[in-house]
Amino acid sequence: MSDCDNAKLPIVIIGGGGHASVLADILLQQQREIVAIVCPDDINQRAIFSGITHLKRDADISRFSADSVSLVNGIGLMPKSSFRRKLNETFLSLGYRFETVISDSAIVSPFCRLEVGAQILPMSVIQAGATIGSHSIINTGAIVEHDCSVGSYNHIAPRATLCGDVETETNVYIGANATVIQGISVGNGAVVGAGACLTRDLASDMIAYPAKITTK
């Protein structure tokens, strides 16, 4: 099902906001060791991070050797943003690896494929034959139906639905409660807005709003 190895290395989470807190909650419930949160801002208001070492700079990750920890990118993936990807690429180039995170409450078919660094959040569903690309987020309650191919660095937002045989390329954002009907293709960098129902292919860098398609 997954390309990740089974080594249970200690975790360093990059980011200290809401998305990072959800990932930390999943990992702590799975009894994973989180050795540090990396965030320039104050994280004391989030009880989930209590007792975990707080590092202020990305460069501080270097105090851990690349073979002694796994990284988790806790920065949310926003539409049209390359920040999360660039951060990952920086640490991948230094030999670090990113953990694949799967919530225990997600329904994940043993006949799907999860690539390294994917994040599968609570109550999401990944059906048989689906592929989730590296470093993509399948957010809370999202549904990826049979035989879908989700590209790398996608964000399938809460309660979005990809019907069967949907294909998304790299850096695609599917908004909350959006629906992409079966057989549709979504190009690189495209955005399907919250609540939209996509019934035809969407070209690269296009944005689909409810009831209309336009460029940014």
Write the layout of secondary structure elements.
Elements: E1 11-14, H1 18-29, E2 34-38, E3 54-55, E4 70-73, H2 83-93, E5 101-102, E6 107-108, E7 113-114, E8 119-120, E9 125-126, E10 131-132, E11 137-138, E12 143-144, E13 149-150, E14 155-156, E15 161-162, E16 167-168, E17 173-174, E18 179-180, E19 185-186, E20 191-192, E21 197-198, E22 206-209, E23 212-215
Given as residue ranges, the uncertain stretches (5+ residues, pLDDT < 50) are none
Average pLDDT, to the nearest integer?
Answer: 94
Listing every helix as H and every strand as E from the N terminus to the C terminus, the arrangement reads EHEEEHEEEEEEEEEEEEEEEEEEE
Oligomer: single chain
- Domain count: the total is 2
**How far is the N terminus from the C terminus?**
36 Å
Shape: globular
